[in-house]
Structure formats: C-alpha cells, structure tokens
Amino acid sequence: MKNNLKILYLFLITLSNIYGQEGIIEIEEVSVEEEPGTNPIPFAVVEDAPRFIGCDGSSNSEIKRCTSDSIHKFVKDHLIDLEKTLGEEGKKRVYGQFIITKEGKIKDVKTRGPSPELEKEAKRILELLPNMIPGKQRGKAVEVSYSIPITFSEN
Fold first, then answer.
1. Which segments constitute the TonB C-terminal domain (predicted)?
2. pTM of the predicted protein model
C-alpha cells in the first residue's frame, strides 16, 4: 500500500513538472512487487488458510470452512449473558476484526458495534481465541486478517 502511494506521489510530481512543456514525454512503467507478509492477506484469498487446531482437509476451501465454523462456535460458546445491555430490540450485531500472525497468534483485535459494552465483550472473546496454525502465501508464513460478525441475542 505504501509503495502504491509512493508511486502515485512520484507520478503526480512528474506531471506537475512537465505541465505546460511542449513535446512528447515518455513515462516508463514501473512495477513494484510487495514482499509477502508486509500487509495482512485477507482470509478469503490467502493461498493456504490459517487453521484452527483440529481442522484438517484435503482442500483449502475445506480448511477455511472448518476454521470459520470453529471460530464461530468458539465465540458462541464464550458469550456472556448481556440481556440488560441488549434492551428491547433483543438482537444486536458487532463486527470484529483481527490478525492471525505468522506464528498463529491473535493480535490487533478491533470491534465496532452499537454499544461500548457489546464491543468490549466481543473484543474479550476474540482475544481468547487459541493459537492457530499460520496461513501461508507462496510457501511462506504470512499474517492473515479475519473479520467476523458477532450477533448478540437474548437466547
């Protein structure tokens, strides 16, 4: 991402320097390949998905499905009773996001929801997630971002 911004910045400077000059100016195309692992790769597109312990499969899609199901079950099993916070509506959703590191640990947990209490509870649960088998891109361990909606209900 930073490299793309640098290229855009250099391109804009070049354009501002040549604006108003006559003649044809050739601009050489430059490609920048980011080193794997510099930015988290989304769970949906990583080549070899991180695995929740116990998730095995013959394909990446089976591993992704098992890992997602296991994360959802873990969250559901660790929710506390928040009837007072839910109010009359009875059902509220918090969106959580975190990174699975190259070592399989959970970091940078962020939540967004309708109340600070629900955000705090969602963050508490996501920080409890166990270590996982890290994801890989081009054969190297990489950080993988994962997003999850957490629905709180009166049940």
1. 86-152
2. 0.70
